[in-house]
Amino acid sequence: QEGIGLDAVNDAFLLESSVYRLLRQYCGKQPYYLHLLELFLQTGYQTELGQTLDLITAPISQVDLSRFSEQRYKAIVKYKTAFYSFYLPVAAAMYMAGINSKEEHENAKAILLEMGEFFQIQDDYLDCYGDPAVTGKVGTDIQDNKCSWLVVECLRRVTPEQRQILEENYGCKEPEKVAKVKELYKALGMEAAFREYEESSYRRLRELIGKHAQRLPQDIFLDLAQKIYKRQK
């Protein structure tokens, strides 16, 4: 942005440093302080790895759909989104409540990383099919060459001719090219594919909660799952 430039980089470092100053100020004398410190440091590292993987998978002005594999997509979602948005807040609360055992944290992680993936796939769907009046934004994943769930699933279904259409139009700003990608999504039944995924993923979440939250408050996990199930924004 004009007038800011590379100052934004230093501002980001200041914000990151403030996290640890606040942790020390308000939690420094608590028995869970070191657990929180390690949790925030590890989550920051994982998120940065995810962001890096996202950037090198879909560089600006270089469309390479061969990079858009399911394995890579899941890794991006796990590290870029699931750790900080779902595991971090619950794990922090667990430490503050005196729940320190590695087994219980691994159980919570198994549930919450799956929930984070579910949430991100919903985001990818809403980017294309959500109502901007409800979501508060106009989706641009197609134009921005994003490795989204929709394009990854699309690539699993396309014929060679359909893949050529995707190669020629994905990652382009022109409205007519974006429209061609959306037409391809429609032809391949991506809305129905998402609905099927949403139902099966929600069932799996409930099964994971039943299996891994036997010694944890199940209602917390069930409430989180219910809140994001069939969300529209």
From TrEMBL:
One of its GO terms (biological process) is farnesyl diphosphate biosynthetic process. Pfam families: polyprenyl_synt (PF00348). Transmembrane segments: none annotated. It is found in: Cytoplasm. PROSITE patterns: POLYPRENYL_SYNTHASE_2. Its EC number is 2.5.1.1, 2.5.1.10. It catalyses: isopentenyl diphosphate + (2E)-geranyl diphosphate = (2E,6E)-farnesyl diphosphate + diphosphate; isopentenyl diphosphate + dimethylallyl diphosphate = (2E)-geranyl diphosphate + diphosphate. This is Farnesyl pyrophosphate synthase. Key enzyme in isoprenoid biosynthesis which catalyzes the formation of farnesyl diphosphate (FPP), a precursor for several classes of essential metabolites including sterols, dolichols, carotenoids, and ubiquinones. FPP also serves as substrate for protein farnesylation and geranylgeranylation. Catalyzes the sequential condensation of isopentenyl pyrophosphate with the allylic pyrophosphates, dimethylallyl pyrophosphate, and then with the resultant geranylpyrophosphate to the ultimate product farnesyl pyrophosphate. It comes from Eulacestoma nigropectus. Its cofactor is Mg(2+). The gene is Fdps. SUPFAM superfamilies: Terpenoid synthases. Keywords: Acetylation, Cholesterol biosynthesis, Cholesterol metabolism, Cytoplasm, Hydroxylation, Isoprene biosynthesis, Lipid biosynthesis, Lipid metabolism, Magnesium, Metal-binding, Steroid biosynthesis, Steroid metabolism, Sterol biosynthesis, Sterol metabolism, Transferase.
